[in-house]
What we know:
Blueprint: E1 5-10, E2 18-22, E3 28-33, E4 39-50, E5 59-67, E6 70-76, E7 80-81, E8 92-104, E9 110-116, E10 125-130, E11 140-142, E12 145-147, E13 151-152, E14 154-158, E15 169-173, E16 182-190, H1 196-199, E17 210-212, E18 220-221, E19 223-229, E20 234-244, E21 249-253, H2 269-272, E22 278-280, E23 304-305, E24 315-318, E25 323-327, E26 335-336, E27 350-358, E28 368-375, E29 383-389, E30 400-405, E31 410-411, E32 425-432, E33 435-440, E34 443-448, E35 462-463, E36 476-485, H3 491-502, H4 504-507, E37 508-512
Antiparallel strand pairs: 1-14, 2-10, 3-9, 3-11, 4-8, 4-10, 4-14, 5-6, 5-7, 5-9, 10-13, 11-12, 15-21, 15-37, 16-20, 17-18, 17-21, 19-20, 22-36, 23-26, 24-25, 25-36, 26-35, 27-32, 27-36, 28-29, 28-35, 29-30, 30-31, 32-33, 33-34
Amino acid sequence: MACDTLVIEYDNSAHANSQENLGTTSGSYTQSFKVPTDTDVCAMSFYGGKGTVGTQPGTYKFEIRTAPNSGSILATTGTLSTAGMAAYTVPAWHDLAFSAPVTLTAGTQYYLYLKALSGSTNDVIRWFLDTTGSYTDGVFYRNASAFSGQDMNFRLFKEAGGGASGSPYSATVNSAKVTGTHTNYPAYIDLANMPADFWTTVANGGGDIRCYSDIALTNELAREVVSCDTATNTGELHVKVPTFDGTTVIYIDVDGARSDYAVGATYGRNAVWSDYKLVYHLKETGNGTLGEYVDSTGNGYNGQGGGGNATKTPAKIAGKVGDGQDFTPTDNDYIDSNVDNALDVGTLDYYHSSWFKTSRATASVNGSEFTINKQNTFSPYAGYYAEILMSSNTADQGKVSVSHRTSTLKSTPKSATKYNDGVFHMLCARKVATTLQCVTDGAVVGTVAGVSASVSTTRTFKVGINPSTAHNQMDGVIDEVRLMIGAAPSLDWISTEYNNQNDASTFWTIASAGGGGGTPVTKNAPFFGGGMI
């Protein structure tokens, strides 16, 4: 990684009215400073040039110390020689790298120490001093004596992205997009929105991505990296946030080297979805292989294209949240979980959601297009499902509904709005106690009360078709299928979830934690990368 992202700059060189000559091993010049947040410093610059010319080039080095003219040495640059250095009458910035990055702690006073390695007969260094003293987090020292109101011109740098491991990046939520406060919310971040320097650091596949709730990177969060492609600068990240509201900030750290967590690890994939029964991101390229569509909960309800038939397997395509699956009705495309009783809902609360985009504007020969389905094949078709109505009844074509059916009761709240417009929509069923709601694009579009009967079925959970695998085929794209049994999120949660997934670019403000994506800026005042590092 390039060590070229500015951490601190004090550049009042235009007003510098003094230069300090250093040419003897018996003296030293020091500038104290503080970093506003924990960060790794890997390089520095000083402003000046060669002063009095001696019998041979002078040699020098800079150190970061814990006290002026003494204290522990935390970092050391390589040797600086005046050979080839321009005279102080044409001053310039001179860059030096530290032998290894050093982690500095926010609010702690540190000391940038210039030390001569050669004698007084050699060339001297002139480091430019500003006696107006407008830098507020430190002062200039000659040997061990402080000179209040005087400061040297200096810069400190971190690696691209900054932070203790070469990051962190901040994702700050748009408070207008969040309703309520949510516990263990799985937040979606579209990695295509990450700053350019993220992509020069992150490992392909994103196994090195770590997420935190604090900029000090001490409170780690479980995350799933669904994809991270450094060739296309695209990817899909989900982060479980213990308390999510309109003030949430997630810090993302990368180093280009760490291995991914095991899926069952504390901060691994499964932990993100511990409140769910089944989650399909549908990013895979299927061919009918058993278990090819991964259930990210770790519960093992992995899907199989076409029930094992490659010709009935949907095709990978760009979806709403990363990639999705394109279902062709003439091929009878579908995905089968091969799981029956474990995904029954009985009388429990439950919630299922999926994104769909139908390619059909007019009636389907089979009447409806199912997004998800767990329903018996025989009358009265007990089970639960979600559908886009595409019957010959033109008044209903394009409306959506969800169903909770028993042998004696069909509870089917239906929308008044039509959604067969060729764009993505989020269709959800939410059952709490005895109320079933159809929720589309974050809003309730239909409600049925008195839903108390138990629902169970011997058929497996399927995506894109009815239980017989010969009717109600989806004609279009399905993405991000989720199922929760035993609980259902609040309507505020669903509204927030819709906003998050519908347009992640406006849901978050994403930047290097320095605030500017790692672009150095010159100011005649202390500079901290836009405020935070």
